[in-house]
């Protein structure tokens, strides 16, 4: 395991990132603030986007990588947008370890505390497991209700992919599905394209999607296969020109270099009784060209 302070974060002395290093060409970098995955490199290719203007202040969510959304997706009356998981300090439960096959695994946890209970008065434990092989990166989130009362929540893995040119990127597996369009904001629509492309601001939540998507146009002309388990919805997002200019932690000219394809359980909230648990995961695989 290597633990290092990134140069751009040097002003905040107590912030560290951890690296799962399989063979130097295949690595994952994780920030303890939000347990945010900052980088996934497979065969020497960096596949995730992080804004050059991302803020590392232990307060704001990090703009890029794979932020964790819990217990609420979107605007939240009780607290910050997308909940508190992505802005909380997580505990390293199991340091990065290599098994006999060469795969790397690390585990992070977050439990309720006085700050979370001020917003959302429930007892819980989140366990986030990262598993890295040569071409595959699996992220698994387990939610345990450790209290005596039922709670409801939504959750999502807010994955930012790096692209060469957003207009050439595509997402498969969404044709014929109903989606909510937050840009238009005037109801629900049905996707009629075999491959979803982006040529304007996009913020769509597709409900009850297949467990598999292929994202093309990832940096270097690559393709990534996304396989989801217990995460039935898919969000596709790109801020485009105007919204990019309006975000302080996102460069004005960065929107062509990223595409969010986000696996989640957001269209319908989950209900978890006392002592019950929920587990959802996504597996990202760099496909052969």
UniProtKB/TrEMBL annotation:
Catalytic activity of the protein: alpha-D-galactose = beta-D-galactose; alpha-D-glucose 6-phosphate = beta-D-glucose 6-phosphate
**Which InterPro entries is this protein grouped with?**
Aldose_1/G6P_1-epimerase, G6P_1-epimerase, Gal_mutarotase_sf_dom, GH-type_carb-bd
Q: Which residues form the active site?
A: 158, 262
State which pathway it belongs to: Carbohydrate metabolism; galactose metabolism
Q: Which residues bind substrate?
A: 63, 81, 86
Cellular component aspect of the GO annotation: cytoplasm
Would the keyword Cytoplasm turn up in this protein's UniProt record? no
Under Enzyme Commission nomenclature, its number is 5.1.3.15
- Which terms are listed as keywords in the entry? Isomerase
Checking CDD domains in the record gives:
D-hex-6-P-epi_like
Per the record's keyword annotation, is Hydrolase included, yes or no?
Answer: no
A single GO BP = carbohydrate metabolic process
A Pfam family that this protein carries is: Aldose_epim
Molecular function via GO: aldose 1-epimerase activity; carbohydrate binding; glucose-6-phosphate 1-epimerase activity
Main role? Mutarotase that catalyzes the interconversion of beta-D-galactose and alpha-D-galactose during galactose metabolism. Beta-D-galactose is metabolized in the liver into glucose 1-phosphate, the primary metabolic fuel, by the action of four enzymes that constitute the Leloir pathway: GALM, GALK1 (galactokinase), GALT (galactose-1-phosphate uridylyltransferase) and GALE (UDP-galactose-4'-epimerase). Involved in the maintenance of the equilibrium between the beta- and alpha-anomers of galactose, therefore ensuring a sufficient supply of the alpha-anomer for GALK1.
Fetch the PANTHER family from UniProt: APOSPORY-ASSOCIATED PROTEIN C-RELATED, GLUCOSE-6-PHOSPHATE 1-EPIMERASE
Family under the similarity heading: Belongs to the glucose-6-phosphate 1-epimerase family.
State what protein this is by name.
Answer: glucose-6-phosphate 1-epimerase
Q: Which organism is it from?
A: Branchiostoma floridae
């Amino acid at each position: 395991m290597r633990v290092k302070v990134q140069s751009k974060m040097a002003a905040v002395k107590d912030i560290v990132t951890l690296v799962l290093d399989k063979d130097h060409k295949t690595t994952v970098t994780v920030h303890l603030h939000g347990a945010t995955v900052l980088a996934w490199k497979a065969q020497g290719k960096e596949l995730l986007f992080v804004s050059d203007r991302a803020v590392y202040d232990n307060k704001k969510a990090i703009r890029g990588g794979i932020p964790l959304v819990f217990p609420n997706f979107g605007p939240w009356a009780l607290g910050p947008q997308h909940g508190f998981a992505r802005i909380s300090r997580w505990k390293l439960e199991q340091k990065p370890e290599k098994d006999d096959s060469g795969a790397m695994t690390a585990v992070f946890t977050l439990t309720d505390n006085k700050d979370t209970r001020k917003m959302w008065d429930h007892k819980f434990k989140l366990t986030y497991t990262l598993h890295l092989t040569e071409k595959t990166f699996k992220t698994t989130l387990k939610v345990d209700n450790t209290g005596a009362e039922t709670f409801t929540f939504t959750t999502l893995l807010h994955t930012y992919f790096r692209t060469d040119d957003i207009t050439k990127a595509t997402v498969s597996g969404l044709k014929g599905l109903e989606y909510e369009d937050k840009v238009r904001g005037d109801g629900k629509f049905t996707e009629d394209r075999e491959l979803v492309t982006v040529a304007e601001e996009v913020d769509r939540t597709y409900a009850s999607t297949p467990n598999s998507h292929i994202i093309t146009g990832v940096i270097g002309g690559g393709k990534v296969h996304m396989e989801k388990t217990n995460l039935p919805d898919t969000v596709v997002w790109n801020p485009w020109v105007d919204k990019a200019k309006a975000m302080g932690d996102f460069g004005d000219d960065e929107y062509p270099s990223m595409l969010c394809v986000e696996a989640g359980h957001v269209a319908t909230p989950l209900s978890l009784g006392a002592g019950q648990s929920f587990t959802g995961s996504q597996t990202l695989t760099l496909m052969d060209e």
